[in-house]
Structures are given as C-alpha cells and as structure tokens.
Amino acid sequence: MISPSSLSKMLRLSVALVATTVLLAACSQMPQLRSDGATTTLAQSERPGGEAQAAAKLGTQWGEGIESKAQSVVAKRLSPEHPDDLVSLGYDEASRVRGVVGNSPERRLNLQLAQGDVEWSVLGENNRPMPLQRARRNNDMFWLTGVEGGRYTLRFRNNSERSYIVIATVDGLDVLTGKPGSLRNGGYVLRPYETVNIEGFRKSQSEVAAFRFAAPGRAYAANTEGGDVRNIGIIGAALFELEQADSPRRPRHTDKLSRPSAFPADDAYAPPPRYPK
User: Fold this and answer.
1) Which CA distances in Å does 81 have to 35, 78, 114, 238, 262?
2) Which one, of 151, 145, 60, lies nearest residue 99 by Cα?
3) 3-class DSSP assignment, residue 79
4) Residue 106, phi then psi, degrees to nearest 5
5) CA quadruple 99, 102, 103, 109: dihedral positive or negative?
C-alpha cells in the first residue's frame, strides 16, 4: 500500500497509467482503466462534416525509447459510456494544412476540454506549444503543422478539482496498447491540478516509443496489425470524469513481465512495428 504522502511525490514525477487490470506510471501518474463503455472508435478518418479526409502526407512513427515509469491503480468512471469531452486534432505538412484552414485561420496554443477543466496542448521538441489552426468559416477541427522527423508530446493540464481519465489515440491507435482506439480502453489518470505528458506509445511500465512525424509508409499505423492507414494524420482525446480517487492495486505475480505468458495476445502495451523488407 502506498501512503498519501509518497503517492503525492510520485505524482510530480511524470506519467502514470491506470487500468482495471491496472498499471500506474511514475512519469506523470496516470492509471489505465477498463470499464464498460461505448465502442465508438476514436480518431475516425472522416471530417466532422462527413467529408472524407484526403490521404495525409505525414504520420507518426514508433520512435526511440524514452524512460517513462508506470504503476497500476484502480479507478472508476462517473459515466462509463459518455465522455465529458471527445476531440479530434488533425496534422499534416504545412502546405496541406494551409489548404484546409485558409489564409486567415483561427489560431490557438491549446484547446479547452470538459468546459475548461482540462487544457490540451501539443509540445514540440523545444517543449513549447505548437500552434493549432482551423478555418474561420466553420467549426471544423483544429490542425497542427508537423515536420518529418520532428518529435512531439501530448500535454494535458488539469485546472480543476476533478479527476479525469484521458484516453488518447494517434493515427487511430490507442497510445497505451497500440490497438484501435475505443472509448472502452484504459487511459491516463489526470488528478486535480496535475499535468500529464504523453510522449509516445507505451512499450512497458518503464518506457515509451517517442512520437515522431514520419512519411505515411513509416507510420506505426501502417506497420502494425491493429493499424489502418485511413486514420493516419489524426490525434484523438476523450475525457471521463472519475467517480472517486484512484488507489494503488496490490501487486500480483502475473505482473512480472519476465514470466512466460499463456495468453500473449492480451499484452497490455503496444507491440513494436513490423516494417516490410
């Protein structure tokens, strides 16, 4: 059992995750949770107005390993089937983004989610928010300009006294499992006034594979079984308010990753990509 004081210290480190089969990370303290919910897939390859999105010129590659320790916790959603917010963010090369947003787009450095409780921004390699743009003529989604090879981070800052679970997808893939994004999936726990940085696809309890912009053919979604190239070029985020504070789960012998597994298909984390020879 972890005392409140030691847990508080862990929260300041960096990223934790929570699941019903639970895991809690030491780099931003977020639990991954699996509760019954809608099977709606995050990050669809259609624009909000129903217009099909043109094939993206940029995707996100499985990058270098970054240390990001995690620990399992138990958490419960206030409303398992209905997210408090569900947002999609498109990204592509500069010329393609200009073609979508026009010459005088609305610009922001972050998006306000859950009626302002949570602030979502995308950080570049300089650790500064990257500009988000959308056309002024309608209420379409915002777009991010990327450069091939550039690394980015998803940052969620909680400005409220509520706790949330953040389910994030990149190119239609869940950032924790590498499987198709769903509102049923687990995610990162965002506690009151805490900030969570999601730096990549989670490989284990101690490491993530960095998000790096890449040509679509090198994207993780194009080189893993759960990927769909139609979803390349879009990032999704869903927020669910938590009913109560999460608590650490008792460790079990099955948590030791070095042991052989009779059910290898149920691995909790994203598998590495397999590039064609």
Assistant:
1) 9, 9, 15, 11, 31
2) 145
3) coil
4) -75, 135
5) negative
Amino acid at 158: N
Of residues 159 and 12, more confidence is placed in 159
Q: Are 186 and 19 in contact (CB under 8 A)?
A: yes
Residue pair 80/257 in contact by the 8 Å Cβ criterion:
no
Q: What is the mean pLDDT of the segment spanning 66-77?
A: 85
Beta strands 118-123 and 111-113 are: antiparallel
Q: What is the pLDDT of residue 70?
A: 75
Helix (H) or strand (E) holding 11: helix 4-11
CB-based contacts of 177: which residues, under 8 Å, 6+ apart?
A: 185, 186, 202, 268, 269, 270
Q: What is the pLDDT of residue 115?
A: 94
Query: What whole-number distance in Å separates Cα of residue 110 and Cα of residue 123?
Result: 10
Which residues neighbour 192 within 8 Å (Cβ) at sequence distance 6 or greater?
A: 158, 160, 161, 162, 163
Cβ atoms of 188 and 31 within 8 Å: the answer is yes
Give the residue, 213 or 277, on which the prediction is more confident.
213
Structure token digits, residue 195:
């900030």
Spatial contact of 36 and 50, defined as CB atoms under 8 Å apart: no
Neighbour count for residue 268 (Cβ, 10 Å)? 21
pLDDT class of 175 with cuts at 50, 70, 90: very high
